[in-house]
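WARN retry 2 of 3 for item q-0093 after timeout on previous attempt; input resubmitted unchanged.
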Amino acid sequence: MYNVLTLNKIAKVGIDCLGDKFSCSSEVSAPDAVLVRSASMHEYEFNDNLLAIARAGAGVNNIPIPKCSELGVVVFNTPGANANAVKELVLSGLLISSRKVIDGIEWAKTLKGNGAEVGKMVEKGKSAFAGPEIKGKKLGVIGLGAIGVLVANAALALGMEVYGYDPFLSVNAAWAVAPSVKKVNSLDEIYAVSDYITIHVPLNDSTKAMICEESLAKMKNGVRIMNFSRDGLVNSTDIIKGLDSGKIAAYVTDFATDDILGLDGVIAIPHLGASTPESEDNCAVMAANQVKDYMINGNIKNSVNMPCVEMPRSGDARICVIYKSDSLDIADICGKVKAASLQIVNMENKSRNDYSYAVIDVTGNADDTLKAELEAAGAIKVRII
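OK item q-0093 returned
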C-alpha cells in the first residue's frame, strides 16, 4: 500500500485513478508520494521514503526542485492539462483589453434609478468605451508550448495575424501550430510588429522581468500586453511607467499584485487561468496517473527534474536506480546486477543534467542485498518492484 499526501484539494476523479494500492489523505505523516497544486513545499520536511511529488498544474515554483533532485524525489507536472482553460481566458483578455467592456459595464451600473432616461443616457455616454476590433491586428505569441499553440491557432480563427517565437519549439508543438502562424527568430521581431503580445514561458533566470523598460522601448506605441504565465515575467514598475506614458494601452494579467491594482489600463484577474472544473479534473487525473505509473512500474513521464523513461515490463523484477552521473555509471550498475546472479532482459538508461535514471528488467531473485550494494556504490535512490 502506498500512502499519498494531498497538500491541496485534488479532484476526486484524480484520486479515484490511483486505485486500491494507494491510500490518499491530507493527514499522512510519512508519505510515499505527494499531490499538490499551489501549496508551497519550500519549508516542507522530506521523509526518507518520499519517492514522488506531482504538481496538478504546469508551474513548479512552489516546489524545491534542487532539493528534490538531491534526494532522488521525482517531480512531475501536468503540461497541457489546463491549456484550454488558460487559452480561453487569454482570448477573453484580448477582447476586454480592446473593447473596454468592463469599464462600460461598471458605468452602466451607475445609471440605475434613472428610469426611462437610461436608454438615452447609454446612447450619449457609450462613446467613452469604444475600442478597436482584434480582427486584422497583429498578435505576438512568446512561447509556443501547450498553451501558446492553442492561443496562436485560436487567434488565427478570430482573424488576427499571428507571430510566434519559441527557440525551444518541440516536435509536438511544431506539428500542432497552424502553418499560418509566422515563426520569427527573435523577441525583437515580436516586439516590433505586434499590436498585442501574450507571454507563455516559464519563469526562470533567463525570463525574469523580460518585459521591462528595454523591451518596451522596442514595442509599438499603444501595445496591449497579456500575461497569464507568471507575474515575475514583467517588471511591474516599468509596466506602470509604460501605462502612464501611453506606450502600453492595456496590461491584462492573471496575477493581481498590490502595485498594479486599481490603475487605469490594468485588468487584473485573480488567477483564474486554470479555475475550471474541466481543468482541475484533467490536472488531477494526469498527476495521479503519472504517480501511479512511477510507483508501480518505475516509469517517468513529464518530470521536471529527472529524465523521462518509459519501458514495458518484462522479466521477474524491475530495478530502478536514480544516480548522479558523475558518481556512478551504468556499467557499474549492470556489473552489480550480474554479480547478483540476475539476467538482464531489458533496460533503459537516460540522463538529464547531473542526474541519470536506469530501469533494468531482470530474471532471478532481486532482493534488498542488491539495493544496499547499489546505494553503497553511490546511487541516490534504488527500488526493486
